[in-house]
């Protein structure tokens, strides 16, 4: 479904990504693991069309989308749940969800998709008229996921979905991603809880200083001594 080939990305003269290559098959959960500053969010933003790579290819469903504007990438079926949730705080929960359904690919089915999101996240049903900025962190993350799904993505990039949440709420959010995957959603996840992300991922890539240094099955990497020492404190 997605192939990244020899991707280079710069911020001015500073190189953020170097010859990054990875692939994602339809129906997979793929984890991207790395320390703070390794380039994980830069990679997510480049795939989503928020950053323009200097070179390389990003091929989604057979089309090279590298450098394509983010709204066009979204309309092709590639969604993003950004780090920090990024809901529209002054808009109501309902308005946030309807904004998510404004993509041309999903606009005609906004009512049906809204009904589906409220069934998936019943707590949002209780808060439809409430400004999004007044929700708890966990509720905002539910809203961010639901807003993304309103656009009918086929692949979703999850950037630190449990960041800042209580352990119970973080566990619930990660369980939701697994459930969505079981329903057919392809997922890329960048997650501070490395152990949890490797446990849930079919495959994973380790990103260090902007370059892929290791890849393999998620549970195999969970047992890799290099990963355990670097990211799990073992």
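^ Assign residues to that structure.
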């Amino acid at each position: 479904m997605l192939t990244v080939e020899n991707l280079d990305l710069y911020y001015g003269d500073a190189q953020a990504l170097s010859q990054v290559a990875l692939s994602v098959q339809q129906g997979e959960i793929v984890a991207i693991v790395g320390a703070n500053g390794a380039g994980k969010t830069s990679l997510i933003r480049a795939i989503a069309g928020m950053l323009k790579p200097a070179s390389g290819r990003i091929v989604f469903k057979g089309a090279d989308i590298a450098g394509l504007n983010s709204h066009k990438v979204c309309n092709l079926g590639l969604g993003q749940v950004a780090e920090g949730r990024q809901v529209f705080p002054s808009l109501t929960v309902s308005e946030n969800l309807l904004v998510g359904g404004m993509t041309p690919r999903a606009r005609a089915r906004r009512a049906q998709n809204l009904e589906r999101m409220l069934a998936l996240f019943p707590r949002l049903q209780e808060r439809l008229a409430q400004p999004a900025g007044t929700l708890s962190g966990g509720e905002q993350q539910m809203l961010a996921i639901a807003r993304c799904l309103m656009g009918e993505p086929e692949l979703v990039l999850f950037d630190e979905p449990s960041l800042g949440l209580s352990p119970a709420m973080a566990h619930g959010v990660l369980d939701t991603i697994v459930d969505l995957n079981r329903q057919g959603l392809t997922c890329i996840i960048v997650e501070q809880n490395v152990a949890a992300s490797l446990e849930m991922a079919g495959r994973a890539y380790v990103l260090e200083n902007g370059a892929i240094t290791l890849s393999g099955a998620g549970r195999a990497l969970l047992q890799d001594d290099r990963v355990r020492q670097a990211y799990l404190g073992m």
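The two ends are 34 Å apart (CA to CA).
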